[in-house]
Specification:
With about 475 residues, the protein is an alpha/beta fold. Helix content is about 35%, strand content about 20%.
Length: about 475
Amino acid sequence: MSKSGAIEYSTVSEVSGSIMVVEDVSGVAYDEVVEVVGNDGVKRRGKVLEAEGDRAVIQVFEGTRGLDTKNTKVRFTGKTMTIGVSEDLLGRVLDGTGQPIDGGPEIIPEEERDIYGSSINPEAREHPEEFIETGISVIDGMNTLVRGQKLPVFTVSGLPHNELAAQIARQAKVRGGEEKDFAVVFAAMGITNEESNFFMKSFERTGALERTVVLLNLADDPAVERIVTPRIALTIAEYLAYEKDMHILVLLTDLTNYCESLREIAAAREEVPGRRGYPGYMYTDLAGIYERAGRIKNKEGTITQIPMLTMPDDDITHPIPDLTGYITEGQIVFSRNIHRKGIYPPIDVLPCLSRLMDAGIGEGKTREDHSDVSDQLYSSYAEGRDLRDLVAVVGEEALTERDRMYLQIADDFEEKYVSQDLDERRTIEETLQTAWDIFSKLPKKELKRIDRDYIAEYYESAETEETEETESTAEQQ
């Protein structure tokens, strides 16, 4: 027995990958934190994955290289994994296990919290309905994010999802709220050193780091560390939101790397694989992460979550995006075809969805014409996309004048509405005005999804601006 009351064993029977088996144990609990000490005297951290009878299976975060079965001691602490939380975490950079790596002073925690948190009682949840402005038109205008929502981004390898994550972290804000009440918790899993440097330079250059907590799990860090990284991030978010009444945006990237770690550990434990080799409990595991977002009755603070994941083989039916889509409230989908046109962000609007959008837009939240404008944009763009396919078969000569008009609308939508610069931040008013500028090229009778009163108020101004610009150009000539 150690001084702390923890029990120490030297009965390791098996070491494989990051997994260790200890025999002849008693009183060991699931998820209990352990300390592992080998010949070199270096302490390694781990947790109990399985406790059955007198046998315990342990996951070692730092890996088991250099450990053997004879000279390794395992100390069971009797506690689950916790993280010290404090408001001082804002502006700090941590590793994947929550330890500071920015050279700053030691963080003095206000309290210790279990990283697995506790489930939110559905009865205690409040329906999300307040708009978060990301400054990105295609999200704010057509796939609106609201406080307390979980809205994933489905990307494919080689596309600028890291740039989008950094831009959202820099630009996002709660409309009508004070800047000090809004913060970002950014957790990166399995990223390269180059990607890590990109994020840090982006946050430091724009001053966003001051209101951000950054957790970095690099590609060369132990894969098993990725299992705890998102949970530590969400534990910090819960403290800031529900204890300090802040509105927290949690950005998690890349959940695919997280799921690969789940599969790796399941294989090491020789579990029966599910779809594509992933463990059968992956749905439950992901739900344990995603469902920690939300609003709670009688609490001022909220947690909004944007998980980002790379679709393996560009397949949206792959188990990772497929299960994520079941749990979350919509999705933002990247497209290689749009990326090839040089458009940033390369988001394909047609398969995108925000299930809570209607609750977060309209008069008093964004603008009264927001819903109608979004519907009309979607309809017009979809028709233009269909006509592109038709042109590939019959040629543009076979199109009517109306068809050509919608082809132009599809091009304008991608080039003027979807496309914007990396550092460009558009307000919701600018986003809606851009849409009306596009509508000005359509006759009023084609705006079938917009209320007549909104057309009278906003269409005329767009038409007038275009007329004035044409007259000005003519005068100059």
